[in-house]
Amino acid sequence: xxxxxxxxxxxxxxxxxxxxxxxxxxxxxxxxxxxxxxxxxxxxxxxxxxxxxxxxxxxxxxxxxxxxxxxxxxxxxxxxxxxxxxxxxxxxxxxxxxxxxxxxxxxxxxxx
Length: 112
Ligand code: AMP
Ligand code: ZN
Fold this sequence. Notes:
The protein has 2 helices and 5 strands. It has helices at 4-9, 58-73, and strands at residues 17-20, 24-28, 36-42, 80-83, 99-103. It starts with a helix and ends in a 9-residue tail after the last strand. The structure holds adenosine monophosphate and zinc ion (ZN).
């Protein structure tokens, strides 16, 4: 499958890793929108939030269990924002479920 995040997950494309285990990978966004901008992905290909179901949803709960540790490893000490974009209107550009962790500075109150 021609999915850039699957290729990052299997090491075909390099990334600046923050955390990795057998289920998930966290790496720095190539085009950061905050002082610290990390992406967390399941290694399993899930297209988006729309494709989370009973058989793959453990990936999502597991990611949320790990987010505090990932934020800490990325140097975030004073809070962060977690975002996932799903589908056209949300401008999801990479069709592999991912969670943005933004922090390292005071963020604007709203990102729309
Ligand atoms: P989204 O718009 O929610 O689909 O977010 C996709 C994110 O992936 C964007 O913030 C991109 O900057 C980021 N991105 C795309 N390619 C790479 C890459 N090779 N390494 C790291 N981040 C990437
Ligand atoms: Zn994928």
